[in-house]
């Protein structure tokens, strides 16, 4: 097992990564002192893994409440959150009750926000079961739900007490979801660790086969980088924004196509290639590095070109991204391999990047999704 730490003073917490953690009574007795626990999961993950957690909690003499929510991004909304509050109140959960988020980023984000707000804050533990949630969303305390007018628009920074990643859970994850998680793994190499990037180039095939040692290394390195960045800038007033590499383009793809047509990680795959091309146009990296990134993204099973929305539509979609500051979009660019730079960009280079990378016939993309 690998143990890492997110260092945030008295709100510091451990990240534990390894096989068979779901069943580990010792770990759970150390990490979860609460007498009452609420396992919040969904209709896909609960039948696979909730019983194992429940057994451990019962062995430890805890009162266990289970909440199974519908699957999908649609669950991250106010009405479902309210159902969580209803259940917590009906079961007379108090401020010592600990919420357990068992699932991917949707369950983690919603449960974290429920924990941040129920009775002004109760402890919660992340048990992420997708690669994306293991390497990204379960670490760092961004919690929240979507609003009809925007994704992730309602939320709070609220850190978990611990993050327990049982890598065995990835065995049941659909291949497409695994690839989506790999986009975020590649991101860490591109912006923060040149050696890790090269390691990913050498090990991508084994990662896609879910080789446990290789997966553990990739998840641990990703989490270590994220923990380091979050420890420096919890509320994204500066360096944390580098974790959004590829996301300004990616969010535009997701919202332009309609959420769910491409998975978030798929949009980030193409978005990172676009950000790299833009970085090269600004002289920050050479074309050989753009090509290396393009090959790695493709090897992860992700798209390397974006839909050909009209250029003005692209600019409008990117202008509403959260990284806008005083009306100006700031781009996260590669500044050499393993380094990032946050900067506004002249429109001419942006348009040239779109012309070169946003080449997928829209009708074809929609047809594939149907
Ligand atoms: P998800 O939670 O929807 O999970 C993807 C799919 O995999 C779902 O159908 C889920 O039921 C299923 N699943 C989960 N674990 C499984 C397993 N072990 N075996 C089989 N199926 C399994 O999606 P996600 O990609 O994990 O997370 C996306 C969400 O995370 C988005 O809402 C996004 O906004 C959010 N997010 C948050 C942060 C953050 O910092 N808080 C960062 C990135 C993304
Ligand atoms: N997913 C980016 C962040 O947590 O800041």
Structure report:
The protein has 370 residues and is α/β, with parallel strands linked by helices. The protein folds into two domains: 2-171, Rossmann fold (3-Layer(aba) Sandwich); 175-369, Dehydroquinate synthase-like, alpha domain (Up-down Bundle). It contains 14 helices and 13 strands. The strands form four sheets. The chain has a seven-stranded mixed beta sheet with strand order 1-2-9-6-5-3-4, with helices on both faces. A hairpin with a 6-residue loop joins β1 (2-6) and β2. α5 (131-137) packs parallel to α6 (175-192). The longest helix has 21 residues, at 212-232. The chain is globular. The model has no long low-confidence stretch (mean pLDDT 95). The structure holds nicotinamide-adenine-dinucleotide and glycine.
